[in-house]
Amino acid sequence: MTATRFVAMPTSDAEHLWNGGRDAYDRQPETMVSDGDGNPCRHCLKNIDEGEELLVFAYRPFQELQPYAETGPIFLHKQPCRRYTAEEVQPPMLTMSPDFIVRGYSANDRIIYGTGAVTDFDRIPAYAETLLARGDIAYVHVRSARNNCFQCRIEKAKAPILEETSALA
User: Fold this and answer.
1) Would you give the distance in Å from CA 163 to the centre of its chain?
2) Among 100, 84, 82, which Cα is nearest to 140's?
């Protein structure tokens, strides 16, 4: 069994937008008001409550432009929020839909063909573990099964740092 962690959008990406930065299409994010249903923030991985302002913008969760660097619309709280930290726990926003696309990517950010599957929300951790156990898969994306929007990334859990002990102790 491969231990996994759910990874939110990097805080540096969120801060860039909160501080007036432009999105993946070099445009200013749009401000909307949440209707309370289906507006998940990709930084805190919680739904944005009804009446709260949010940013909607084009996001590319890849460092480099290349054919597999998918870009699409996502949401972010307009006011800064705390990044999701309970990485070993499936984020609450992944219960807002019955299913999601779960897909594996290589270390050079290419889709691994044949790995994408519409997956029931309660099966996401198990399917991600299966994918991450493969040597050719570096990480997994969770995407909307309806719109293909990026939700979060799943990676192998980092090994805990063990204190060194002296062999002479």
Assistant:
1) 31
2) 100
CB contact set of 99 (below 8 Å; sequence gap of 6+): 118, 119, 120, 121, 145
Residue 151 to residue 124: CA distance in whole angstroms:
12
Position 37 pLDDT exceeds 90: no
CA distance 42 to 51: 18
What predicted TM-score, i.e. pTM, was given to this entire model? Answer: 0.89
- Phi, psi dihedrals of residue 74, rounded to the nearest 5°: -145, 170
Give dist(CA 16, CA 7) in Å, integer: 18
Give whole-number Cα distances, 1 to 6, 50, 90, 122, 135, in Å: 16, 39, 16, 17, 14
pLDDT tens digits, one per residue of 83-112? 999 999 999 899 889 999 999 999 999 999
